[in-house]
Amino acid sequence: MKTLLCATLSGLLFGAGLAISGMTQPEVVLAFLTLDSNWNPALMLVMGSAVSVSAVGYALARRREKPLLDARYHEPTARQVDLRLLSGAGIFGVGWALSGYCPGPALVGAASLDYRALVFLAAYLGGLVLYETIFGRIPAAVVIKPGDG
Cα–Cα distance between 79 and 98 in angstroms, integer? Predict the structure, then answer.
């Protein structure tokens, strides 16, 4: 229960940060990704702030034997750059550049029933299932069992 509460609070804080910084508005993101007279560096400042805060958090976490709400840290184990990583990053970047959305801001936008965010999320979920099916990680029919996640 503590883990769920912590995850919920973290998600709400993340969403609030996106909303306050304007990153839930695709126009702001696209203004950064388009290098013309309307270029807006706001996204770079938000990302720089996020990386700085994360770096401090990781530095503090390394001093602890285990996290507060779990028995161990769950760090990524993959260390190689492969086709799956490169193609996923490429698809993510193209989708972000075309729509101005990535999953976090799209969820915030969907909560306000912004049709652009709803279309993005539908396309994102469809692409996720298609991508995972192609790479054989999940079956074509995605089944979520009670207690998963």
Answer: 29
